[in-house]
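Priority: medium. Attachment 1 of 2:
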């Protein structure tokens, strides 16, 4: 097999694993009513099916990335893949809520090892600027569209088979991917370092506490003790983690990975849009299922143009332009295009003529194209220019800001929507229906999302230098050699 052809098979293998990880964050969302009915879940514990995965994934990402650097990306990839398949079997066959939660948490923990390893493998396999741009375009399409495809797949499996297949479907996917890992991904010895156990403990505790607190905000509000306490604990743990990384000889996440202006700007360009995207999903999910009466499958299909637009933006636009334009030149306009798409959804009413075709569909296309054009060069920049021994850590940072951005968006925009809806009811209780108040809340959430995207564009334009291309750059730190193949 020619070397160039082998690299594309490497991308297909690692990309399949990344798609599986992203799918599982959303695939059970539509199935929750069926899960609750079959296992007798209480309303209060229903969300734990989703949060168990998110907590373990977010909490263990940095440790997973460093393990990939230590034992080698392929070994970490295979271990994460096997563990993910076993955890999927446990969750899919669970006869009780406790075993389901345990299986979902195990999935998240294995995903925290699998996702950084997959990105590290792709980053090391593609170093030529044009091919790297195309490869990261495909990676961006899989990552960006995966959440949408998860909703579609979850709806179809639940409606036509059984909710358990939302989890069991991972087993054949993992088996095929494992064959690819054994045949096309090159071995990598890693480097003999002692794991920073203190850093692992503080980062895991900090990330888990923050993600938990943020996922509880929509249900409890910002002033509840079960929100404020983990927020404080999480912030303290992450401060201790940052201090420790400055002094330990072999840090879990070298601060040089974060302090580089290009990588720092790229991480902002990845994380901040995730905050805004929650407003988009919040609005369209409500409109599709509650006001337009779509079935789960039809609601998933209504999101399909978004997935296609992300794929086009990632591959046909950003993937081909990444070798010609700087990261900043691609990312900043893309964020503005996303903001324009969000604006199209402001002011919707049930009586809006041609609601889907005139407003929702164009919004999906603009947001998808913008997201694809932003994520592709940003991920490429965030993982370029690091030594081979730090690729896993840089990849984990990419996944961590994605996870945190989504959690912050869930908490922030849910709060904005609820506050604005309550204010609308108080202002004119006799003339405002509950549906009117909900729409007013959505408008406030969307305008907040627009502000976040405009802020992101401004910050990236200021932080990220304009003279460095979005392809790979050499690592110029003393004592470092350029990244080798995974």
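Attachment 2 of 2:
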């Amino acid at each position: 097999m020619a070397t160039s052809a082998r690299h594309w098979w490497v991308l297909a293998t690692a990309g399949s694993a990344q798609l599986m990880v992203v799918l599982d964050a959303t695939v059970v969302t539509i199935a929750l009513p069926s899960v609750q009915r079959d296992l007798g879940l209480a309303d209060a514990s229903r969300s734990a099916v989703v949060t168990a995965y998110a907590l373990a994934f977010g909490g263990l990402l940095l440790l997973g990335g460093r393990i990939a650097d230590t034992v080698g990306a392929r070994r970490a990839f295979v271990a994460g893949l096997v563990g993910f398949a076993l955890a999927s079997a446990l969750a899919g066959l669970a006869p009780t809520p406790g075993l389901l939660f345990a299986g979902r948490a195990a999935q998240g923990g294995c995903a925290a090892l699998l996702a950084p390893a997959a990105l590290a493998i792709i980053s090391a396999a593609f170093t030529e600027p044009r091919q790297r741009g195309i490869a990261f375009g495909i990676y961006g399409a899989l990552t960006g569209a995966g959440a949408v495809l998860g909703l579609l797949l979850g709806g179809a499996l639940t409606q036509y088979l059984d909710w358990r297949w939302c989890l069991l479907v991972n087993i054949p996917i993992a088996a095929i991917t494992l064959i690819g890992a054994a045949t096309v991904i090159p071995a990598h010895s890693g480097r003999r370092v002692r794991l920073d156990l203190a850093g692992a403990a503080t980062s895991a505790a900090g990330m888990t506490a923050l993600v938990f607190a943020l996922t509880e905000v929509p249900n409890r509000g910002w002033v509840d003790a079960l929100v404020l306490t983990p927020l404080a604990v999480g912030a303290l743990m992450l401060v201790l983690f940052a201090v420790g990384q400055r002094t330990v000889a072999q840090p879990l996440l070298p601060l040089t990975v974060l302090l580089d202006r290009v990588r720092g700007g790229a991480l902002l360009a990845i994380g901040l849009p995730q905050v805004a995207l929650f407003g988009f999903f919040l609005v369209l999910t409500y409109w599709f299922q509650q006001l337009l009466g779509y079935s789960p499958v039809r609601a998933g299909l209504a999101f399909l143009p978004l997935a296609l637009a992300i794929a086009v933006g990632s591959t046909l636009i950003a993937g081909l332009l990444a070798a010609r334009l700087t990261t900043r030149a691609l990312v900043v306009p893309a964020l503005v295009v996303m903001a324009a798409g969000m604006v199209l959804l402001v002011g919707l009413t049930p009586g809006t003529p041609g609601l889907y075709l005139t407003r929702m569909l164009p919004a999906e296309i603009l947001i998808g194209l913008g997201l694809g054009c932003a994520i592709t060069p940003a991920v490429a920049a965030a993982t370029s220019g690091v030594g081979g021994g730090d690729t896993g850590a840089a990849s984990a940072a990419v996944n961590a800001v994605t996870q945190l951005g989504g959690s912050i968006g869930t908490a922030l925009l849910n709060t904005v929507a609820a506050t604005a809806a309550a204010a609308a009811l108080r202002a004119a209780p006799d003339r405002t229906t509950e549906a009117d108040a909900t729409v007013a809340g959505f408008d406030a959430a969307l305008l907040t999302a627009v502000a976040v995207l405009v802020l992101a564009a401004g910050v990236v334009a200021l932080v990220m230098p304009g003279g460095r291309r979005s392809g790979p750059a050499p690592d110029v730190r003393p004592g470092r050699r350029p990244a080798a193949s995974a």
